[in-house]
Amino acid sequence: MNTAKSPAPAKRSLAEWLAWQEALNPAEIDLGLARVADVFRRMAVPRPELVISVAGTNGKGSSAEIVAMLLNAGGRRTGLYTSPHLHRYNERIRVAGTPATDTAIVRAFEQVEAARDGVALTYFEFGTLAALQHFHNAGCAAWVLEVGLGGRLDAVNIVDADVAVITTVDLDHQQWLGDTVEQIAAEKAGILRAGKPAFYGDLPVPASIVARADELGAPLHWPGNGFSTRQFAAASEWRWQGAATALDHLPLPRHQTQLANQAVALAALEAGAAQSLDLLRKQPQLLAAGVLPGRQQHHSDQHRWLLDVGHNPQAADALRESCGAARPAAVIVGMMADKNAVEFARRLDASGAQWFVCPTFGARAADPAELAARLTPLLARPPVVCATVAAAMEQARKATSPGELIVVTGSFGVVGPALQWLGLY
Question: Lower Cβ count inside 10 Å, N or C end of the chain?
Answer without folding.
Answer: N
